[in-house]
Amino acid sequence: MSGMNVIVVVCNSLHLGFLGSYGNAWIETPHLDRLAAEGVVFDHHFPENLTTLPTRRSWWTGRYGFPKPELGWTPLEPDERILPDLLMGQGVRTAFISDVPLLREVGLGYGRGFDEVIWIRGEGYDPLVPAGDPRAKNVRLEDEPGLRLPPDDDPDHELWKGRWRQLLRNRAVIGREEEQSGPARTVGAAIEWLERHQADESPFLLWLDLFSPHGPWDSPAPYRDMYVTIEPDEFETDEEGDLVDDDEEIDIEDVQSLVDVPAGAVGDVLSEAELFRLRRTYAGAVTLVDRWLGVLFDALRGMGRMDDTMIVFTSDQGEPLGEHGYVRRFRPWLNEELIHTPLIVRMPKGAFGGTRRLALVQTVDLLPTVVSALGLPPIDPDQAVIHGHDLLPIIRGEQTRVRDYACLGMDAAEFAIRNHLWHLVVPVEVDPDEPRSPELYRKPEDRWDQNNVIEQHREVAEHLELTLRRFIDALGKDGLDGLPPLREIARLGSG
Fold first, then answer.
1. In angstroms, rounded to a whole number, what is the distance separating the alpha carbons of residues 260 and 9?
2. What end-to-end distance do the CA atoms of the chain give, in Å?
3. Would you list the DSSP string of 217-242?
């Protein structure tokens, strides 16, 4: 078998607009910027099924599942062949190292199949430190003003209170220094694994799965406050979605930094000034991730692994930060800030580096690309049917495209179809509390989906909707059964 090693580094909830290689000018991400300069940057990369669990299912099965609720935020089925299963018996060492507490929950199966699995405990609301632990006996919610509880009469009040008590207990035991942060400890475990296997000659796949910059954004000093004085706010947009200076002066230096906030609407869960402050807190979390990925990349250079290893960097989803009036995944709304995710591939020795690819690619493409990079033949259809495409020919410049459009969904409640010119969003379930009609956005001019042009381009919308239906039909899915035509959805959404 001839091939290369593969290291896949994924982040949870990384907003594309916060990376220098995707156009951000004010957030420091020098190590990922260097990776992009030495690698191939994909400008049009999208999930097929959001969010955390469904995306990992897409990565590890190479299959579309967005129309089916049972393939969403659900455990892996016992007979689902996932990436480490397909590599078993192929002479490849596999390891999974992660601090994502959502993946470790009992019965999900998202750590199975790898030769080695290392869980880094204590991130987010991970139930690491139990209530009553004497090491956290002095923890009190009222001592952390950065936690915004819902009102007492909110049905989720007790849920969030429990989560944040867990967060503070974990913090009290683990500590708050940078070296004790999730990115630092997870990268440290990866470097230890690499050093331990330095002398092994068999190829390896190391899957490094980072929870950051997913909230809570409890970054150590100085990251939480490092961007508080940055102006202008780069997420103010004109009607076409272009980033512009904010005309209104909002002094946020004295605004309380929010460590965590429930998903919800701006104005309900946080004020506009707090939103602007939260964006900067989030930016600090992104820089913290970049800092420790730099430590990983330096270690790889010292081991000589940059010469024989393909490094893939990506994220499972973006992070809504007020672009459409809400924060976090409050609604299954498939707008740019949630669905457009980074994909950077650095080949051994930086081959083909410094290039960008315009092909429409999706999360299902990662599995066949990894298999190909390891020097293995394509997956036998008798073992598993793979919907994704090997991206190595795109990376090498031998192909320019693998699909004409990207189809995706979330919670089987909203679907979308995207190409280079248009982005159509189609609600499947009409929410009576927040009616939503189909929306059409022109690309690339309207980057952040601010100007719905469906009334001006009804024929385009209907053509895209028909394409979406045919795509799902071709998959043999039944997720669109009963979905009314576009005109009927528009009538229901406005009623």
1. 25
2. 61
3. --PPTTGGGTTTT--S-TT-B-TT--
On the question of a cis peptide bond just before residue 427, with omega within 30 degrees of 0, the verdict is: no
The pLDDT assigned to 241 comes to: 39
Structure tokens at 367: 């599995």
> Cis link prior to 467 (omega < 30° from 0)?
no
Alpha carbons 4 and 307: distance in angstroms, whole number: 9
CA distance 292 to 182: 10
5-12 and 406-410: which strand pairing? unpaired
Cα gap 125→182, rounded to integer Å: 12
3-state secondary structure of 146: coil
Q: What is the DSSP string of 358-384?
A: EEEEEGGGHHHHHHHHTTPPPPPTTT-
Q: How many CB atoms lie within 10 A of CB 106?
A: 6
Locus of tokens 């002479």: 91
* Average per-residue pLDDT for the chain: 90
Beta-bridge partners for 7: 206, 311
Q: Taking the domain 5-402, which CATH number applies?
A: 3.40.720.10
pTM of the model: 0.93
Sorted by where each begins, the domain ranges of the chain are 5-402
CA-CA distance, 88 to 36, in Å (whole number)?
A: 31
Parallel, antiparallel, or unpaired for β 116-119 and 93-98?
Answer: parallel
Query: pLDDT by residue (tens digit) across 443-454?
Result: 999 999 999 999
Dist. CA 34–CA 21, nearest whole Å:
9
